[in-house]
Amino acid sequence: MSQKIEQLLKPLSPYSAKNLYYSFFGAFLRTFGRLSCGINTGFTYGFDSGIIMNYIYDNKARGKFGIGPLLDRMFLDQVTCKAFRSIKQIQINMIDRYLRESVKKPTFIVDLASGKADYIYEILKSSSDHKLKVLLCDIAESSLRESRKIADELGVGDKVSFRRGDALDTKNLRQIEPKPDLLIEVGLYGIIHDDAIVRTHLLNIGKILCPKAILFNVQTQNPQIELIARALRNQHGEKCVWHLRPAEKIIGWAEEAGFRDPEIVMDPYNIYAVVMMTGK
Ligand SMILES: C[S@@+](CC[C@H](N)C(=O)[O-])C[C@H]1O[C@@H](n2cnc3c(N)ncnc32)[C@H](O)[C@@H]1O
């Protein structure tokens, strides 16, 4: 698996058919492709950003001239985009069940890499009477700014607070108060290539934040992984290389960190595993 990552990070031989194909396709996307609102958003903010995730969740084809919306629909119908929409719903179902099981108890949710946190707003819209408070954290101010606008539009500003911070920074984690009941980090591990960082991060979550439950997702396989790596760009303008891992690997690290009883739901395309585990 790590060899696959190394292959994806390595440039292709300049005269190979594969290189010509991805260079041509990448150039097409960066030029004409930008007539599609989604592809333009991806190249502006990064295809690993919270902003593109929300665009994909919305699933409304938009773009310039006649061709833009058509290209956008093709983009939104890609299997990876379908999987994103699917895991959003799986995550909502899992959060909703967690809240129903802890009914009437005040609940504090912390999302450490929230993006715009569309799934959280769906929950807030449907559970207005629950004593629920949410802290949305992200390293990107742009996503938090957009998310704040949604909170204001929905009139749920009293339930949601925001914090810019690095999920991997222990100093940042120590400043999170009170300790969360449910900790969410979805869409984070796939952009971290170093296994040791994810493993240590989970140990830190267990030690510092001690949540009663944790919800995460794992990208386990993706038929478009090479296309995404060679033709798209991440938030830093670099190749958008995503790290595939077996769900069991991350579940094992979470178990080392003290979490137990994994409930695993795969999306229908078998790309993502969504996992909920109980804390200590
Ligand atoms: C793929 S998006 C997922 C957004 C959202 N959780 C969702 O699933 O729709 C990844 C998010 O992680 C954020 N991120 C990346 N590295 C981070 C870090 N070290 N600490 C906090 N957030 C991070 C990005 O800014 C981005 O919003």
Explain the overall architecture.
This protein is of the alpha/beta class and 280 residues long. The protein has two domains: 11-79, no CATH class; 86-278, 3-Layer(aba) Sandwich (Rossmann fold), CATH 3.40.50.150. 48% of the residues lie in helices and 15% in strands. It contains twelve helices and seven strands. It has helices spanning 2-9, 17-30, 37-45, 50-58, 67-76, 79-101, 118-126, 141-154, 170-174, 195-209, 225-231, 247-256; strands at 107-111, 132-138, 160-164, 182-185, 213-219, 260-266, 272-278. A seven-stranded mixed beta sheet has the order 3-2-1-4-5-7-6, with helices on both faces. Helix 8 (141-154) links the parallel strand 2 and strand 3 (160-164). Helix 10 (195-209) crosses helix 12 (247-256). It is globular, with a radius of gyration of 19 Å. The relative contact order is 0.14. Bound molecules: S-adenosylmethionine. S-adenosylmethionine binds at residues 48-50, 53, 112-115, 138-140, 143, 166-168, 186-188, 191. S-adenosylmethionine binds next to helix 4.
